[in-house]
UniProtKB/TrEMBL annotation:
Molecular-function GO term, any one: endochitinase activity
Pfam families to which the protein is assigned, alphabetical: Chitin_bind_1, Glyco_hydro_18
EC code: 3.2.1.14
Domain GH18: 79-435
Record's catalysed reaction(s): Random endo-hydrolysis of N-acetyl-beta-D-glucosaminide (1->4)-beta-linkages in chitin and chitodextrins
InterPro entries, alphabetized: Chitin-bd_1 (IPR001002), Chitinase_II/V-like_cat (IPR011583), Chitinase_insertion_sf (IPR029070), Endochitinase-like_sf (IPR036861), GH (IPR017853), Glyco_hydro18_cat (IPR001223), Glyco_hydro_18_chit_AS (IPR001579), Glycosyl_Hydrlase_18 (IPR050314)
Protein name stated in the entry: chitinase
Species annotation: Trichophyton interdigitale
GO biological process, one term: polysaccharide catabolic process
Leader sequence segment: 1-22
Stored PROSITE patterns: GH18_1, GH18_2
Length: 609
């Protein structure tokens, strides 16, 4: 699991002020853009009134806590929820997560992390030989389940720019040459077209940073690279997105020309987590107080919050305490905590590992060596607890996510990002924790469709998105060319001679219904399996499910039973008695529908079987 740290800021931090003493000195020319009035501003971009903020290269007369530029709409943080997917977790032996496992009902965007860049050709590749190329297709196929989902390829990451690697200089080499920028942009476009992705997310960690192989010209060259990407994408005839990730520490942020980059990028993904890594005292890595200070770095260069997505970490930072009796934030520790059972990395536990340590029935869990009691630091908007006597961890859950979302909504952030969706507990997803502020329910709370589902379903098929009949030979399915934004829903029943098939295709473009049905995929699969075993007369419809993949049917109704019943009712409503005279195909369709609905009512469904 060496890749878990791909978006981690590896600076020894004990506080944002202490960071200012630990890192190298910033260039005065760069700092000039961060100064304002009042108080004193340290060379690292943080302002205060004590001697800590005014050393050899401090800037005088800065605003202690600058306000964000005005004009941003508030309450938008959950209108855009970006989930990162760690591709290497597809091959995890203990928490394997393939794209179809991701809770996309809670996401508007999904970023595949990561693609690498070939140092010679500047083509996008998998990050290593162990990662199958097929994952690109698997990610893109999620749009069949949720057509509104925007899928981005995230390029780079921490490992990509590691010291002593062949890939570390690649971003710099691309950015410094007009020819290389053009070549990379065209290669990126070819990748997006090949796999059907909607945009690119550049994760250069970090331009200009001397400890990361950076050069002084990276700052301006990065803007030129972003400009070239925008020019090439705009000529493509597609509406393609461009984003980039940015750090929370000034040590790395000082080499980003944020206003310049945002002329061409749609927004910035702020990595507002891992504020604390290895240090001397146990501290929360997602402390809201310090996130606010990090955001002030953006306000100082006039970045509007509407151009920023705020980051949420789906993992915790854990430590082995020096004194088991000292368990508050700020207590000294001697090492990272014991490695997680699955992640296997000292000092790092995934969301699902934290949930497995805690009980399902509250804040206290009895262990052989005592109790676990969860503490909520409401000022920092984090939770923490100790277990196994000397193990300490800070993390986020629904309560603290809501605190952060409420603050972000008040500021005017345009969205949120999750690192990472595959770190969530599969029964209780972290995405649902975040979106609890929007009343998204956990998967186990999903209820079946009500009895009047037929009326609701029929009501969704307006004249604009309902087309019947499209009775076609399935060997040449005309309905495969759906209009953009519409979902293909199929129904099939083999005719008596077994040679031909007839089908009905509906065009569904109802976001609320679509999202509701997305959540029923697990139940749908279970009922397909059950029906296949116990209702041999329905083999025709099961065969077409396999041909078009079950994903299409997740958008139709919550389960196999309802799919058959509601489809048959729609057909009967479209072709009432006597309305099929002279139309042999329609007559067969109505007869088949009635046979199906009769058969499905004869099934005695046992949900436990």
């Amino acid at each position: 699991m060496r890749y878990h740290a791909v978006m981690i800021i590896p600076v020894a931090l004990t506080s944002l002020v202490a960071m200012a003493h630990a890192v190298a000195k910033a260039d005065i020319a760069v700092m000039a853009q961060l100064t304002a009035v009042k108080a004193a501003c340290s060379e690292f971009g943080f302002c205060g009134t004590t001697k800590d903020f005014c050393g050899d290269k401090c800037q005088s007369n800065c605003v202690l806590h600058p306000k964000p530029p005005g004009g941003s709409a508030t309450g938008k943080t959950l209108s855009k929820v970006i989930g990162y997917y760690e591709a290497w977790n597809a091959r995890s032996k203990c928490h394997g997560t393939v794209p179809s496992d991701l809770p996309i009902s809670a996401l508007t965007h999904l970023n595949y992390a990561f693609a690498f860049i070939d140092p010679s050709t500047f083509e996008l590749t998998t990050m290593d030989a162990a990662t199958p190329v097929s994952l690109f297709n698997d990610i893109a196929a999620l749009k069949d389940i949720k057509p509104s989902l925007q899928i981005y390829i995230s390029v780079g990451g921490w490992t990509f720019s590691d010291n002593n690697t062949a890939t570390q200089p690649v971003f710099g080499n691309i950015a410094r040459s007009p020819e290389n920028r053009e070549k990379f942009a065209n290669n990126a476009l070819a990748f997006l077209n090949q796999y059907g992705f909607d945009g690119i997310d550049i994760d250069w960690e970090y331009p200009g940073a001397p400890d990361r192989g950076g050069h002084k010209d990276d700052t301006k060259n990065y803007v030129e690279m972003m400009k070239t990407l925008r020019q090439v994408f705009d000529k493509s005839g597609r509406k393609l997105g461009i984003t980039f990730t940015g750090p929370s520490s000034f040590w790395y942020m000082r080499w980003f020309d944020l206003p310049g980059l945002l002329k061409y990028a749609d927004w910035m993904n702020l990595m507002s987590y891992d504020l604390h890594g290895v240090g001397s005292i146990a501290q929360a890595h997602t402390n809201l107080t310090e996130i606010k200070l990090a955001a002030e770095l953006l306000w100082r260069v006039k970045v509007d919050p509407s151009q920023v997505a705020l980051g949420f970490g789906f993992y915790g930072r854990a430590f082995t305490l020096q004194d088991p009796g000292c368990t508050d934030p700020g207590c000294p520790f001697i090492a990272g905590a014991d490695p997680g059972v699955c992640t296997g990395t000292s000092g790092y536990l995934a969301h699902y590992e934290i949930q497995e340590i805690l009980s399902k029935d509250g804040n206290v869990r009895a262990l052989a060596n005592g109790d676990i009691k969860v503490f909520h630091d409401e000022t920092a908007a984090v939770k923490y607890f100790t277990w196994n006597k000397d193990q300490w961890i800070s993390y986020d859950d629904a309560d603290t996510f809501k605190q952060k979302v409420d603050w972000a909504n008040s500021i005017g952030f345009s969205g949120s990002l999750i690192w990472a969706s595959d770190l969530a507990h599969k029964a209780i997803t972290g995405e649902n924790d975040i979106k609890s502020a929007s009343d998204i329910k956990k998967s186990e709370e999903i209820k079946p469709l009500p009895k009047d589902a037929a009326d609701e379903l029929n009501g969704s098929f307006t004249r604009k998105c309902y087309k019947l009949p499209d009775i076609v030979d399935l060997r040449n399915p005309q309905a495969s060319a759906c209009d953009p934004g519409f979902t293909k829903v199929g129904y099939d029943r083999a005719t008596s001679d077994g040679k031909d098939s007839i089908a009905v295709f509906n065009y569904l473009n109802d976001a609320v219904l679509r999202d509701y049905l997305d959540k029923a995929r697990a139940q749908l699969l279970r009922e397909i399996t059950y029906t296949d075993a116990h209702a041999q007369g329905l083999k025709g419809i099961l065969d077409i499910w396999l041909e078009f993949e079950p994903a299409y049917y997740a958008n139709a109704v919550a389960n196999a039973h309802n799919f058959v019943v509601e489809t048959a009712r729609i057909i009967n409503a479209r072709f009432p008695t006597g309305a099929v005279d002279g139309n042999k195909a329609a007559a067969i369709l109505v007869t088949t529908a009635n046979q199906l609905i009769k058969s499905v009512y004869q099934i005695k469904f046992n949900p436990n079987e």
